[in-house]
Amino acid sequence: MRKKKTQPAIRRTIISRLEAWRTQQHANNAGSTYPGVPTTTVEQDKAGWQSFFEGCPVRGWAEAQHTYFVWIGSRRSGRRWLAALLQKLLDVAWDLWEQRNAILHKQDSAILYAEFDQGIREQFSLGTTHLPREVKGFFRTGLKAVLQYAAPVKQAWLRRVEQARKRAMDRLRAENIRPYEQERRTMERWLRAGRQETTS
Q1: Last residue of some domain: 88, 105, 122?
Q2: 10 and 22 both lie in a single domain
């Protein structure tokens, strides 16, 4: 991030939040007041830093960095900066996967790849209805292209989509319960009122 001239507050925030996510510790809420950073950090906290690590940041990072580029007189783009950062994170994920694979070495890679491919095909067959807009974008390249991804990218793609779909289904189930609960409470009030009229 230093080589890419990342705004210092953005650099510190991203590193500290990723470190807190990695160690499963509570992140320090004391942050920068640099324009765009506090609100973007809050939104990313809500979305989760695993999503950021896996290439799905919330809106605001590129814009905040672009403001800094303008301020220092650089002609660089905030979007290109973010793309380079996400590519670096994917490289890190690849390195971690290779290391983990070398340590475990017990699981047959061919079986693992087949599981990823099967999971991806299932997600495409389920479609994108009810998924958030940023996750729907994961499907734009098409099934054939996604199946060509490297194994750690497939794994990250699959985990992100499965988590988003689970959250969407949980939300839909909750929304389906609310009208029923409202009807039940209305019926209870109506029955109570009827009993009171009878006793009086």
Answers
A1: 105
A2: yes
Q: Is 65:57 a contact under the CB 8 Å cutoff? A: no
CA distance 7 to 36: 12
**From CA 178, how far away is CA 194, in angstroms rounded?**
25
Pair (75, 145) in one structural domain:
no
Distance between CA 134 and CA 131 in Å, rounded?
A: 8
Please check whether residue 5 is in contact with residue 22, taking contact to mean a CB–CB distance below 8 angstroms.
no
* Mean predicted lDDT score pLDDT of the chain: 84
- Half-sphere exposure (Cβ direction) of 184: Cα atoms closer than 13 Å: 5
CB atoms within 10 A of CB 70: 12
Q: What is the pLDDT of residues 24-83, one digit of tens each?
A: 887 776 567 888 999 999 999 999 898 898 888 999 999 999 999 999 999 999 999 999
Q: What is the DSSP letter of 138?
A: G
- Residue 40 token pair: 């973007």
CA atoms within 13 A on the CB side of 93: 21
Residues with Cβ within 8 Å of residue 16, at least 6 apart in sequence: 27, 28
Q: Are 180 and 188 in contact (CB under 8 A)?
A: no
